[in-house]
TrEMBL record:
GO terms for biological process: rRNA base methylation. The active site is at C444 (nucleophile), C444. It comes from Levilactobacillus brevis. Keywords: Methyltransferase, S-adenosyl-L-methionine, Transferase. Residues 14-33 have a biased composition (Basic and acidic residues). Belongs to the class I-like SAM-binding methyltransferase superfamily. RNA M5U methyltransferase family. The keyword Transferase applies. This is 23S rRNA (Uracil(1939)-C(5))-methyltransferase RlmD.
Length: 487
């Protein structure tokens, strides 16, 4: 794509700064624009936003258009009007981008998780590097103009990679059981009989279980009536061991027809090695509840990453892309450059995947996680892999790290892999107080990464940012940041 071609780094940022000033001028004039929902007008797409939508300008007002690509010319239809911007949908494309491709999934423009399936893969990778640059420009951490933003590391085959399907379950107006994802900005369920980004086995199990729920006339949760039992189905597959775990997330501990259901799963889905139930009662935006129960098979499944084996309980976090997870963690290990005898803290540790990969070099690895089952898994994974110098505790990094420091433990290195909300302010303060010589930030959200770097660059220099495509066909981007302490 024209705006993704390599540019002189400083000239690139100068152009982006000029564009930022232009955006500000446009914002000052938006109040004079009179636009109505349903109105149509021609629009040229100037760039793509961080969520993968096309952005153009109508009478100096920003217009966000999902599904539109840079340099395309389209007739768009306004879907919502805000004070400083408009949202619209493509009515007709007049000039098509050479990077546009036909999506494999017919519903790609209806649900989240397929925002870029209409964009060819090399352009997706360039876009994700640009997303990091956009975030840095917005927050402007110290020295951001000169950061080394490395080309995004992608996949050879960017489909069939997701190891977990987490689908809502509902009955449609005809009484048929459906499983899928909500349409964008709604709670209208889109049934997904196929899904090209999922590992095939996850969809095989998902559709078979939906048929069982239909045959057994299982009580399916009804959002409007706030009644029924089965809310969500979760299928997770282990790429390297062929284990598959099935979890029923339910509105109550009761699971009618449980015996018949488990018999059919055992007979018809021998690949399912673990069946669990998670109870999440009532109306809530959270998918998972706190109570998880064992129904059949093993209580966990086993996955391999590199030379290590990991046990996965139902709620334990693991990256959705097994192949790229190894790439991501290899980059984190390379960036940390741990030397023999050094100590390391694995913050937001999950099941210990990053920390345990460092244990063969480190003198000691300590980690923390807020989900008790994940901590149990992490310590069990250490034992199963014969690792005796790694230990994990339940709690937040911002609570446990100061406690460890007070007890005399000062890590040489810290690796953080926070949720999309980024680092807790107290943890940032603690890192800046401890000042470990090495710090690696593994980010799943460039915006919160850039925001956190504003504080971290007071004491640390950003050596480089390596973006990694963990979720092809989406706008999501992961990045590994190598930071070194200023002297």
């Amino acid at each position: 794509m024209a705006n993704y071609e390599s540019k002189n780094h400083r000239g690139y940022h100068r152009d982006r700064n000029q564009r930022s000033h232009q955006d500000q001028r446009r914002a000052r004039q938006t109040e004079r624009v009179q636009v109505e929902v349903g109105q149509r007008f021609p629009l040229t797409i100037k760039r793509m936003g961080i969520n993968g939508e096309g952005i153009g300008y109508y009478k100096r007002m920003a217009v966000f258009v999902p599904g539109a690509l840079t340099n395309e010319e389209a007739v768009v239809e306004v879907t919502s009007v805000a004070t400083r911007y408009l949202r619209a949908k493509v009515h007709r494309i007049r000039k098509t981008s050479p990077h546009r491709v036909e999506p494999r999934d017919s519903y790609a423009d209806q649900v989240g998780g397929f925002e870029l399936e209409h964009l060819d893969y090399p352009a997706q990778l360039a876009f994700k590097r640009d997303v990091v640059a956009q975030a840095l420009e917005r927050y402007q951490p110290e020295g951001f103009h000169s950061y080394d933003l490395r080309p995004t590391l992608g996949m050879k085959g960017p489909y069939g990679y997701r190891n977990k399907a987490q689908f809502q379950v509902r009955r449609n107006a005809e009484g048929q059981v459906e499983a899928g994802l909500y349409a964008e900005r709604s709670h209208d369920l889109i049934d997904l009989p196929t899904c090209s980004v999922q590992m095939p086995v996850t969809m095989t199990v998902m559709r078979a279980v939906v048929a069982m729920l239909q045959d057994l006339d299982m009580p399916i949760y009804d959002e409007e009536q706030k009644s029924g039992i089965v809310k969500t189905l979760v299928v997770r597959a282990a790429a390297h061991t062929d284990d598959v775990q099935l979890v029923f997330i339910t509105n109550s501990p009761k699971l009618p027809h449980k015996r018949e259901l488990l018999e059919r799963i055992a007979n018809e889905l021998p690949q399912v090695t673990s069946v669990m139930q998670n109870i999440n009662p009532g109306e809530t935006s959270l998918v998972w509840g706190d109570d998880t129960r064992h129904l059949a098979g093993a209580e966990a499944i086993t996955e391999k990453l590199g030379d290590l084996t990991f046990k996965l309980s139902a709620r334990a976090f693991l990256q959705l892309n097994p192949a790229q997870t190894e790439v991501l963690y290899d980059e984190a290990k390379k960036a940390l450059d741990l030397q023999p005898g050094q100590t390391v803290v694995d913050a937001y540790a999950g099941i210990g995947t990053i920390g345990l990969s460092l244990a063969d070099v480190a003198a000691e690895v300590r980690g923390m996680e807020i989900i008790p089952e994940a901590v149990d898994d992490a310590n069990a994974n250490a034992a199963a892999n014969g690792i005796t110098n790694a230990h994990y505790e339940v709690g937040t990094a911002e609570d446990l790290l100061p406690k460890w420091v007070m007890a005399g433990f000062r890590p040489d290195a810290i690796v953080v892999d926070p949720p999309r909300t980024g680092l807790d302010a107290t943890l940032i303060e603690t890192i800046l107080a401890i000042r470990p010589s090495k710090l690696v930030y593994v980010s799943c959200n460039p915006s919160t990464l850039a925001k956190d770097l504003v504080d971290l660059t007071a004491d640390y220099r950003v050596e480089y940012i390596q973006s990694v495509d963990m979720m092809p066909q989406t706008a999501r981007c992961e990045a590994v940041v190598k930071l070194t302490r200023r002297q």
